[in-house]
Amino acid sequence: MAVLQGPVQAAIWQALNHYAYRDAVSPAERLYAEVHSEEALFLLATCSYRSGKAYKTYRLLKGHSCTTPQCKCLLAKCCVDLSKLAEGDQILSGGVFHKQKSHDDIIVPEFGDSARFPLPSSGHVYCKTDRLTKGSECDQKTMPTEMRFPPQNAFMQKYTQKKPCSYWRPVLTAQERPIKHIDS
User: Fold this and answer.
1) Does residue 164 lie within any of the structural domains?
2) Domain check: are 73 and 142 in the same one?
3) Both 82 and 138 in a single domain?
4) Within a domain: residue 128?
5) Are the C-beta atoms of 107 and 122 separated by less than 8 Å?
6) Domain limits at 24?
7) Per-residue pLDDT of the chain (184 residues; tens, 9 = 90+)
8) What angle, 0 to 180 degrees and rounded to 10, lies between the N-to-C axes of helices 5-17 and 38-50?
9) For FRET with 169, which of 15, 103, 141, 182 sits at 20 to 30 Å CA-CA?
């Protein structure tokens, strides 16, 4: 089967990319039964997750040792979808649920170049557990650098200064309006 592993994986990814999830599940299950690799496990879990079976994906990844960042990210996403927020946070941050570490210290070394993809799940966990500042940090870091908003205080300083607009006119009350006399 090792000779066919590459073409089978390519066919599965092609089915996933063209939204034929049911067509992708069966070959992915067969591939994982033959190969038992982390890559095949991730492919099978991806097929299951995209088919709308988050709990099945959760059980699959939880039952096997998932050590790759891709599998951990997908497992954390399943935990968030299933409202297992503490477990999702533990998977993403390595068990530092209440410690005050930054995301650069936790997620970036673990996930490397793809560190911005698990951050939305982490941000969702933080927002649901009333840690809004950390949640907004996660959401901010998910965007590419050129699309990021300025920091809140700079934004507030720039847009809340009281400047009269060129089109601004004071609104006069009925007593302040000049009375027009109609000559008959």
Assistant:
1) no
2) yes
3) yes
4) yes
5) yes
6) 1-65
7) 454 788 889 999 999 999 998 889 999 999 999 988 899 999 999 999 999 999 999 999 999 877 888 888 899 889 989 989 888 888 877 654 445 555 555 666 666 666 667 777 777 777 777 777 777 777 677 766 555 555 555 555 555 454 444 445 555 566 666 666 666 5
8) 20
9) 182
User: Is 29 part of a structural domain of the chain?
Assistant: yes
Per-residue pLDDT at 18: 92
Q: Distance between CA 24 and CA 31 in Å, rounded?
A: 11
Q: Are 34 and 83 in the same domain?
A: no
1: tokens are: 């089967």
Q: Does some domain include residue 165?
A: no
Tokens 């940090």 found at? 137
Q: Is the pTM of this model over 0.90?
A: no
Total of domains in the chain: 2
Amino acid at 105: D
Q: What local confidence, expressed as pLDDT, does residue 92 receive?
A: 78
- Same domain? For 97 and 134 the reply is yes
HEC string of 119-183 equals: HHHHHHHHHHCCCHHHHHHHHHHHCCHHHCCCCHHHHHHHHCCCCCCCCCCCCCCCCCCCCCCCC
Ramachandran bin of 52, using left for φ above 0, alpha for ψ from -120 to 50, beta for the remaining angles: left
- Whichever domain contains 15, its CATH number is 1.25.40.10
